[in-house]
Amino acid sequence: MTRMTTASGIPVADNQNSLSAGPRGPLLLQDFHLIEKLQHFNRERIPERVVHAKGSGAYGTFTVTHDIRHFTTAKLFGAIGKQTETFLRFSTVGGEKGSADTERDPRGFALRFYTEEGNWDLVGNNTPVFFIKDPIKFPDFIHTQKRLPDSNLKSANMMFDFWSRAPESLHQVTILFSDRGTPDGYRHMDGFGSHTYSLINDAGERVYVKWHFKTRQGIRNLSSAVATRIAGTDPDHAQRDLFDAIAAGDFPQWDVKVQVATPQQLADWEARTGWNPFDLTKVWPHGDFPLQPVGVLELNRNPLNYHAEVEQAAFSPANVVPGMGYSPDKMLQGRLFAYHDAQLYRVGTNHQHLPVNAPRCPFHNQQRDGTMAINNGGAAPNYATIDAVGKGGTGMGHGEQELPLEGGAGRFDFRGQEDDYTQPGNLFRLMTDEAKQKLCDNLAGPLSQVTDEILERQLRQFDKADPGYGRGVRASLKRLGRNVD
After folding, report:
1. 125 is catalytic
2. pLDDT of residue 381
3. Which residue, of 99, 119, 200, 485, has the fewest CB within 10 Å?
4. Which residues form the active site (predicted)?
């Protein structure tokens, strides 16, 4: 096999694991292979988004219903009843801009809060987990969901070759091939921040959080057959449903809730379960970390111009306001770089100047010139003086205390050493018999098209999650005429 190199011909030491400070991260900017890989991936399409290409958007409000100021100093969580303007973009993930809204796919749930302290972007999906836990594999994964380089066709063989070699993907695969993989429009699904984030209070104390948005319209999914039929009769089904509902005054709403844990609580939970709390392929069980109410999100205004307000909307999870922070989640760490970099390429150097992206509060910096310099700073200086001499440590900024790191820098591969099967097995065991049958039937369709080697590898993954899972998929495959042992 030809050895992999960077674009400059330098041999790649490890294409499986990002360079991190200790086994849990965070990641290091010196990992040029990761940076080059993500930068090239972000520039593969012109001008369509590489992922989340087809989407719908609407403006709305977030209203505080419960006081969480003991967790955070963020001003948008002020007195009960306080409202903040929002913009939410829904999307499919793998399909092109002209693809059908009802394809089997996760759904993007990208939410912007226009706060008085700047924009907060919470960029998630309609699922609480994802397929991978390290961003160095993201370009590879997305390529398997796109098209073959020779025929330009999508390939079940390619998808399951990746998934069958990545046991951490099984949790999300189980969700994707249930009816949750084909939601009935955007109003009838939940949203999740998915990653673990931080909240910081006025004492500088940090808690880790996961954000949940529970639809008030009720969960409604489509069967595989109905989703396929709608794809042929109304491929813009979700766009039409959202736009028409808001235009008619039927404003969709979501209850905003949060799971909260102190660093010590997460350490104790990990010691008990063996699960890394910052692993994006895992959930925090509600029995261990119950949902706490925060507020209500309502969408109540359609955009006036799709291109200007939806297509040019540019989100980044790096956008957090004072009183918030990140976590050692490796996928989040990669997205902190990749999203902003993608917007610089896709929309332009000054994409934050566009109305849908501009903060509603005043902003000042030394960024000047470039394309679309709508607000170019006038005659204000284009440099900042140095005035921090003798101030000592300043933490992470915004009153946030230093985030302790541990371990030597290296590439750490835990595949085969972590439990990637219990949580998808638990999900399977929670399903009704009818839901299990649908899951197995939905999986059998594409699996009937893959090679024997890939099929056997994927079936072993199902068996490890739950023996009934593997038996069910085998039975569905036999009904399709595919012989399996």
Report:
1. yes
2. 85
3. 485
4. 52, 125
